[in-house]
Amino acid sequence: MHSSILLKVDGVTKLFPGVRALDNVTFEVRAGEVHALVGENGAGKSTLMGVASGALSADEGSVAICGEQVLGDPETARDLGLAIVRQEPALMPDLSVSENLYLGVPPRCRPPMNQCRQWALKLLKRWSDDVAVDPGDRVNTLNPEQRFIVEIVKALAADPKVLVLDEPTEHLLPEDVERLFERIKQVTERGSAVVYISHRIREVQQVADRLTVLRDGQGQGTYDASSMDEHRIVELIVGGELDREFPAKAINTDSEPTVLEVKSLRGPGFSNVDMHVRRGEIVGLAGIDANGQREFMRALAGILHSSGSITINGRKATNATPAKATSSGIRYLPGDRHREGIMAELSVRENFSLRSLFKDLSAGLTSRRSETQRAQQAVNQFAVKTPSVETPIGSLSGGNQQKLVLSSVLAGDPQVLLVDEPTQGVDIGTRMEIYRTLRQAASRGVAVIVVSSDQQEIAGLCDRVMIFSRGHVVKELQGKDVVESKITSAVLTATSTRERASEGTSKFWKWTAGDIAPILMLAIAIIALGAYTGSVNEYYFTERNLAGVLPLVATLALVAFGQQILMLVGGIDLSVGPLMGLVLVLQSFFLIEGAPPETQTLGWAIVLGVVVCVGLLNWFLVDPLKMHPMVATLVTFMALQAVSLQLRPIPGGLFSDGVLESLDSSVGIVPLTLAAAVILALLLEFGLFRSRWGLSFRGLGSRPEAARVAGIKPRLTRLSAYVGCSLFAGLAAIPMMAQVGSGDPNSGTSYTLTSIAAVVIGGASLFGGRGSFVGALLGALLITQVNVVTSFLGVTDAWQSYLLGGMILASVALYSKSRQMAVAK
């Protein structure tokens, strides 16, 4: 084994509001070793590696990778050779697997953009020949296991000097765990190092050469793993003896009343399941993942559609929807805590009370006092470590989040408690607390059903175990047969010849959630509306009409391009309309008849400066000052409008004939401005999906923190987006000059809302990460078409608003539903 130090953490202290997460921690990792980092949730393990990876900056101390200092910059750490697999994969959900892999490796490891898909496929195949992940799949369509595989593949693709694995096996199937251990061996054999963070002591003993213990943010020493038994490691983690025994199981429950009875339940991934749970007992569901046990549980919770009979305490229950299942007394603790269990930005109090709000109602209103009291009681009862009940739950450790979610589920007074992976990502001490809580719930008469991929957990916690295979219960174990070896044997025997079913999203919903669907649907709508209008009124397709309509499309398309750029990063600009009007007002002093070339040039220079300054102002208000984009740009909207009215209280300053003639130039009936807009749309569309800037913009809008960790500069990218939006608004004002003819301060205000509408109809997400410039162009064409066809169809102008509102509503509903259907559950 090489003895050189690849990672050195020296005296690091990290403070958060109300919490000293790390306190003078020193930690060294040698070349060629697997160094385990162990401790309870909240001990500081992930924080320490966040500092090491540059994602967090230390308040004191230093970090060096291969002898070079890391100063709170993820890109520097990555370039020096550190790769990290996080407990919650740092992937951008709206980007494809290949795009995430591309952004996730240092520039030296990236292929040409046109070879990205083939490169990603090779990396995935290197993990497994039959890996069920396509490079073109969006990350948000992957299940937790697949996302974790992509995260691991991304880290390995960087050929790291130091590979950090934070709870890497929590979502992996046994065969993938073996693959991971083989990759760890390969990494260390070539002289690199692995930092292995896990709550699973058996895994630590299996793979680690040395281990370091953290407790309450302080180091408890570094030891040779081979010299430490499980009991000693646990004592160091918790600071003393720990009762690691599972709570006593129920005895002689045969005479107890049946709480839950299920007959012939069938749904996606399972069929004809019969089951009962008696008072005092816990029933476990075991089997290789995707064999129906988890789908069965989610169907009971009303998340998946199912048919069959469910009876709770002798009364028929319904699970047609999650709300109806809840009304029947069924409560569900989700396995994917981050996506389904918590609302990270809301407080501990709000996350606790939301599942039992009926207890806090007074005269139909929510009592804040009652919420706070109940939440504080739960925090005390379940020993949740939090500075206060008003602390955002996302800032708590995984174990404390899990305890809070479990307490909120129990606060709803369930008759049936469904628990999916109860201790995933949870430390040993918290795990035992959760086991005791579940046993107490069962003894109070709650029917408890547990799904877990940990066979030891199923064996120690459950009174009976149902073995699932191919969607059926193939065996039931009870009494002395509920031991890990027999559960494992039953699972493997039942599935020895099984072909894994692949439940996926229908092709239709997957297609509608893609980038091509909005463009194609818009094209069909434009053609259909045009054909119908032309059949009703023969003058619609005349040269005169088209010559008047097409320039309007160019103006709206150009400002929509700017809006699209900004919406990609999660922003929005309400000031584009007044900015266009201000450009016309300013140029009405310079582009007038008889103005010399130098005066006109000065006018263009002033306009360019104003446009850039408006973009900078909007960015400054939103990014450094942290104002909401709508509020910030609304302020700019009013300021620009005021300046325009100050300069031109009434329209004036006619543009010169030469300027207007050049802007009216066309080839046949196609204005040159529209041709330029089409070319720009194609170039921007290509750049959006085939260039680094496009990936950066989409990545930042998809998930800002993951984008930052991937090396994207959030502040610089947002600055580019705001300035780019203003530049396109200024560009859109140029063809508008020919349509208005003078400096009219109110000429651009209508473009604020129509530019947003064009982008939304074109398939953009208001939350960022998705969009299309071709879609924005077609959206502009459809909106302009709607504004014109009403006069040809002989209906009132009110129909413009009806049609436009209906299109926005329909498109948003369809795109939202399709993306919801395409997301992996």
From TrEMBL:
Keyword Hydrolase: no
Keywords, ordered alphabetically: ATP-binding, Cell membrane, Membrane, Nucleotide-binding, Repeat, Transmembrane, Transmembrane helix, Transport
GO molecular function, one term: transmembrane transporter activity
InterPro entries: AAA+_ATPase, ABC_carbohydrate_import_ATPase, ABC_transp_permease, ABC_transporter-like_ATP-bd, ABC_transporter-like_CS, P-loop_NTPase
Main location: membrane
GO CC annotations, alphabetized: plasma membrane
Compartment annotation: Cell inner membrane
Membrane topology term: Multi-pass membrane protein
UniProt-listed Gene3D superfamilies: P-loop containing nucleotide triphosphate hydrolases (3.40.50.300)
Descriptive protein name: Ribose transport system ATP-binding protein
Occurrences of domain ABC transporter (ranges): 7-241, 251-495
A Pfam family per the record: BPD_transp_2
SUPFAM superfamilies: P-loop containing nucleoside triphosphate hydrolases
Origin species: Marinobacterium lutimaris
Transmembrane segments: 516-534, 546-569, 601-622, 629-647, 667-689, 719-738, 750-767, 774-793, 799-816
